[in-house]
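Lab notebook: predicted structure, single chain.

Context: the supervisor wants predicted structures on file for every construct in the current expression panel, including those that have not yet been purified. This is the next one on the list. No modifications to the sequence; it matches the entry in the shared construct table.
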Amino acid sequence: MIGQLIYVSDFMTPDPVTVAPEMSVLQAVEVMLRHDVTGTPVVDAQQRLVGIITERDCIRVAVQAGYFDQSAGRVSEYMSRQLSCVQPKENLMDVAVRFIDEPFRRFPVVDNGKLVGIIGRKDVLRAIQHSFSQ
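Prediction complete. Output recorded below exactly as produced.
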């Protein structure tokens, strides 16, 4: 596979674990722990990507809630709305460069406005391993 074009869709996780914007942050934490993920896309009822929430966001919420004696609130209040996404037919090596240049651990994969997958740093490593074992 060395020299052959590898697409994001070849190594992405299709149909990733998601949460809804109206869920409580504590429910989102439960989902992330149950599925052993460090962040998850936030989608609306039509499966359109509206944000992403990470373990870092949730820890920040917990600290603020504990410090100020408040409830945790909804995912929509704490999710990141400025998203960096990729397309299923993007060259995976271009995405690998973005992982070097940008601070993100994962990119939502969006096709026609809808979330279709997620690609993470480990997925890129799997692709590299696969390429060199051919």
